[in-house]
């Protein structure tokens, strides 16, 4: 097993530009972005050692590590995309312009909502292509630890109480061990693999990272 470690991608550092100074960008890149990478890698190492038998939703070592790993992981993903979205002005590719016009009426309408999304957010404004509907959405997210960006879900377990309370009451462990895991189907994951070329994609990414 190879434990994934995030890389500090210095090649993504934006050059100073009109409206964003070297001091601002250096502080953001070399301090904040790097800080998320350092902590992500520290958590990856700690996860190997932590006692998974003590998992608990109120407090447990594994919970704290996984919550904070998501925070750092999303932050790294979003920052790495953000640096690339700050590469100087230009028109969107024809396909993007077309779908923005179809879904928002015009490019300017999309831009108005995207800007309002940013001004309403405490964390991020993200324009995304929804893989289920094929539609474009401006996503407001207040923190790094909501959702997981750029990932195709393969297995999903609902841990809200409404998923098990009628059958299991507060016995969440019984729901996991008797209700979900024995009924777990990989058909959904198989559909995802069919929909997206994940195997070739993984091979090419791992080759590039080696
Ligand atoms: Fe940031």
Please characterize this protein's 3D structure.
The protein is mainly α. The chain has three domains: 1-89; 90-147, Iron/manganese superoxide dismutase, C-terminal domain (minor pseudopilin epsh fold), CATH 3.55.40.20; 152-210, no CATH class. The chain has helices at 22-49, 61-85, 94-104, 107-120, 165-168, 172-180, 187-195, 198-209; strands at residues 124-129, 136-141. The protein has a two-stranded antiparallel ribbon. A hairpin with a 6-residue loop joins strand 1 and strand 2. Helix 1 runs antiparallel to helix 2 (61-85). The radius of gyration is 20 Å and the shape is globular. The model has no long low-confidence stretch (mean pLDDT 93). The protein binds fe (ii) ion. Fe (ii) ion is lined by residues 28, 32, 79.
Quick summary:
This protein is mainly alpha-helical. It has helices at 22-49, 61-85, 94-104, 107-120, 165-168, 172-180, 187-195, 198-209; strands at 124-129, 136-141.
Question: Counting H and I runs of at least 4 residues, what is the number of helices?
Answer: 8
What is the percentage of strand-forming residues?
Answer: 5-15%
Structural class: mainly alpha
Mean pLDDT rating: 93
The bound ligands are: fe (ii) ion
- Helix and strand sequence: HHHHEEHHHH
User: How is the largest sheet built, in terms of strand order?
Assistant: 1-2
The profile of the biggest β sheet is:
2 strands, antiparallel
Shape by Cα distribution: globular
What is the alpha-carbon Rg in Å?
A: 20 Å
Give the strand tally. Answer: 2
Question: What is the helix fraction of residues, given as a range?
Answer: 40-55%
What is the total domain count?
Answer: 3
Question: Uncertain regions: pLDDT < 50 for 5+ in a row?
Answer: none
Distance, first to last CA = 14 Å
């Amino acid at each position: 097993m190879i434990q994934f470690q995030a890389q500090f991608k210095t090649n993504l550092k934006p050059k100073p530009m009109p409206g964003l100074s070297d001091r601002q960008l250096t502080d953001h890149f070399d301090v904040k972005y790097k800080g998320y990478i350092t902590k992500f890698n520290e958590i990856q190492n700690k996860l190997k050692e932590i006692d998974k038998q003590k998992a608990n939703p109120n407090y447990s070592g594994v919970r704290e590590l996984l919550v904070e790993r998501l925070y750092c992981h999303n932050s790294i993903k979003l920052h790495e995309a953000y640096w690339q979205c700050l590469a100087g002005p230009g028109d969107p590719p024809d396909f993007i312009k077309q779908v923005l016009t179809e879904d928002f009426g015009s490019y300017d309408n999309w831009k108005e909502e995207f800007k309002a999304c940013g001004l309403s957010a405490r964390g991020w404004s993200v324009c995304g292509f929804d893989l289920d509907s094929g539609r474009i959405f401006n996503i407001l997210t207040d923190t790094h630890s909501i959702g997981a960006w750029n990932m195709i879900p393969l297995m999903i377990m609902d841990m809200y109480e409404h998923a098990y309370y009628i059958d299991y009451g507060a016995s969440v462990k019984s729901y996991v061990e008797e209700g979900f895991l024995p009924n777990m189907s990989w058909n959904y994951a198989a559909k995802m693999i069919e929909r997206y070329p994940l195997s070739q994609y993984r091979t090419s990414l791992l080759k590039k990272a080696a």
